[in-house]
Amino acid sequence: MKYIKQFSIILLFSFVGELLHVIIPLPIPASVYGLVMLLLALCLGICKVSHIRETAEFLIEIMPVMFIPAAVGLLASWSILKPIWIPVSVITVVTTVLVMAVTGRITQFIIRRDRKQEVKDI
After folding, report:
1. Cβ density class 16-47: b for 16+ within 10 Å, e for less
2. In this structure, what DSSP letter does residue 82 have?
């Protein structure tokens, strides 16, 4: 029953994200709306991490399985992608490295800021 409750909370945020995607005419995926709202709810204490922890960990563990349909779709579209596979591969690698670098820098910034805050509090 605990997992159903946790999954329902995550689905609620996803559903509200879908609604916002329909209401707000921006080119932002509905999943991003849902994730941002969930992040805000966690940061503001509206939703506690303990309310979704186990189900979120499970979903993260099975995430690679979710890429199988996309990979099959790429294989099915190989005839279309064949002439442009080199530029697509380069773009994919460059943007992946860029996202990893920016994410790492932001994470380092936040960790350093939190450490400075802890030192000030002591």
Report:
1. ebeebbeeeeeeeebeebbeebbeebeeeeeb
2. G
Verify that 53 and 79 share a domain, yes or no.
Answer: no
Q: For 35-80, write each residue's pLDDT tens digit.
A: 999 999 999 999 999 999 999 999 999 999 988 998 898 889 889 9
Rounded Cα gap, residues 45 and 49, in angstroms: 9
- C-alpha to C-alpha distances, 119 to 19, 69, 111, 112, 113, nearest whole angstrom: 43, 48, 12, 11, 10
Show the domain range for 98: 70-122
Q: Into how many domains does the chain fold?
A: 2
Q: Map tokens 């190989």 to a residue.
A: 78
The alpha carbon of residue 101 and the mean position of all alpha carbons in its chain are separated, in whole angstroms, by: 16
Model confidence, pTM: 0.65
Give the dihedral of Cα atoms 113, 114, 116, 119; nearest 10 deg: 170
- CA gap 13, 119 in Å, rounded: 36
Question: Do 55 and 85 belong to one domain?
Answer: no
